Amino acid sequence: MQLSKTRRGRIGERLNEYFSTIGGLSLFTVEFFKTFLVPPYEFAEIKKHMDELGVKTLPIVSVTGFIIGLVLAMQSQPVLIRFGAESFLPGMVALTVVRELGPVLTAIIFAGRVSSGIGAELGSMRVTEQIDAMEVSAVNPFKYLVVTRVIACTLILPVLTVYVIFIAIMGGYIAITLSQSMNFNYYVNSLMLSIRFGDFVPGVAKTFVFGFIVGMVGAYKGYTAENGTEGVGKASTTSVVVSSLIILLFDMVLVKLTLWLWPT
Amino acid sequence: MADLMVNIKNLSKAFDSHKVLDKISLNVEKGENLVVFGRSGTGKSVLLKCIIGLMTPDEGDIVVDGQEMLKLSYSQLNEVRKNIGFLFQSGALYDSMTVKENLAFPLYRHFNLPQSEVEERVVKTLEMVSLLDAIDKMPSELSGGMRKRIALARSIITEPKLMLYDEPTTGLDPLTTKEISELILELQKKLNMTSIAVTHDLICANIIADRAIFLKDAVIAYEGTISELTSSQDKFLQNFFSTEVIKA
User: Fold this and answer.
1) Sheet containing B18-29: which strands, arranged edge to edge?
2) For an engineered disulfide with A225, which of A139, A231, B12, B28 has Cβ 3.0 to 4.6 Å away?
3) What letter does residue B141 receive in the DSSP assignment?
4) With an 8 Å Cβ cutoff, are B106 and A137 in contact?
5) pLDDT tens-place string over residues B207-244
6) What residues contact B175, with CB distance under 8 A and at least 6 apart?
7) Domain span at residue A58?
8) How far apart are CA A203 and CA A75, in angstroms?
């Protein structure tokens, strides 16, 4: 079957856009590493962005974390009862949340909330010439706008992830107590016995990478936005799609890597 | 050469196959106010952006205050930029900052001044543009004319030697245009600046220009004082300026 000329053109355009994004993002990342160690260091801006991003994301990750823990425990309980392994429930909830669900879901939510925000903010600054204004006033806009946001994302996501893990574990406990009585101390002891160093550290450590991805993609899409307000909208939406996709791809690689470093 | 603030030689710039500047050569003396006329899309803003290094020309040389702009490293370029002010067509005020923060931004970045002195300079500059009342406002709370004035204040707060104006009066009514133009002239005299202004606006050009050039077909097609250009017998110029007069 032969593809029509228009269809081929569209596929070509998509492929071109896809490879342009990969190429552009790679160069953008190289630029980041070339810039971020060079003074001046914008500590005040980084702190400001960390405050903003943390506050902005806290409500949504709190709700999500609680529901993850709650639903996970509710879904797992009947299955474990069927196999007579109900006592493993706290450990199972904790392991699932610590190793995978907590880091990945927090990162995906963070991407939806923050990457789009950075994309829209920088995109709007680009199309209204604010980035050019910064450049002509002899301030490196890449350093001031991009590097600070990427570092803030990289540092704040692990903090949010630890918080989400805690909330999810609490959600799990509430789900269990809704159907049976369980002592809180027993729940905590049980899950503490199940979690090892090799479960917690890699799970949280990979969120540094996820945070970096979220910041980098959002900043790249916004910083390179063009075509007026349409470009700002596109920067905002595509940054969520691209960052979520890259997070999932990196998760595959990082899971394999952590299993190799900390075999179960 | 010693008295030249800007010296451009054989500057060319094209976007794909569309050539917007074709081997342009131009000198601007220190203290001179040059106006660049031309129809939309004839490379006027591109010329300004090449001068300040926002765009890289395809060929040619640009010397600003003795510095060869195209041969400078990024940090050297930034050192030269500290002596150049740029007024954007849209104002380009940082919309997440108040007026005070917008003005203080370049001072905090480049001058090791105590906060009291920064505040003093912000107040003094806002007084120059008669907008001290707007000091704590956000850019979104300002009218078009006020935004232009604040943007002008931000670009002159570092007391640059060279000012580049990209359509400083576009979108303003004739009276505000006149006020802004007179303000530009007054500030230039007060701060002893050289300026290059891109504009379509005859009111503005009449007030600020010592000399004018006209870009057409990617080259400097006409050059002279405003009265020489407006009284020219050239059909194209007559047509252009008669339309501008009707608009004004």
Assistant:
1) B18-29, B4-15, B59-64, B67-68
2) A231
3) G
4) yes
5) 999 999 999 999 999 999 998 988 888 888 888 887 65
6) none
7) 42-261
8) 22
pTM of the model: 0.86
Mind listing the domains of chain B with CATH numbers?
Answer: 4-94+162-247 (3.40.50.300)
* Higher local confidence (pLDDT), B191 or A115: A115
The total domain count for chain A is: 1
Residue B247 clears pLDDT 60, i.e. is over it: no
How many angstroms separate the CA of residue B246 from the nearest CA in chain A? 30
Chain B hits for A135, Cβ within 8 Å: 54
Residue B231 to residue B224: CA distance in whole angstroms: 11
pLDDT of residue B243: 65
Position A203 in a domain? yes
Mean pLDDT on A237-250 = 94
A8 belongs to a structural domain? no
Asked if the peptide bond before residue A202 counts as cis, ω within 30 degrees of 0, the response is no
- The verdict on a CB contact (< 8 Å) between B92 and A135 is no
In a domain, A139, yes or no: yes
Residue A34 lies in a domain: no
Please tell me which residue of chain B has the smallest CA distance to A127.
B92
ipTM field: 0.88
Q: Which of residues 91-150 of B touch A (CB under 8 A)?
A: 92-96, 105-106, 109-110
The shortest CB-CB distance from B78 to any of A130, A133, A138 is to A138
Q: What is the pLDDT of residue B92?
A: 93
Computed on alpha carbons and rounded to an integer, the radius of gyration of chain A in Å comes to: 22
What is chain A's mean pLDDT, rounded? 91
Tens of pLDDT, residue by residue over A157-183, are: 999 999 999 999 999 999 999 888 888
B74 touches A: beta carbon within 8 Å: yes
3-state secondary structure of B113: coil
Considering only CB atoms, B82 lies closest to which of A129, A138, A140, namely: A138
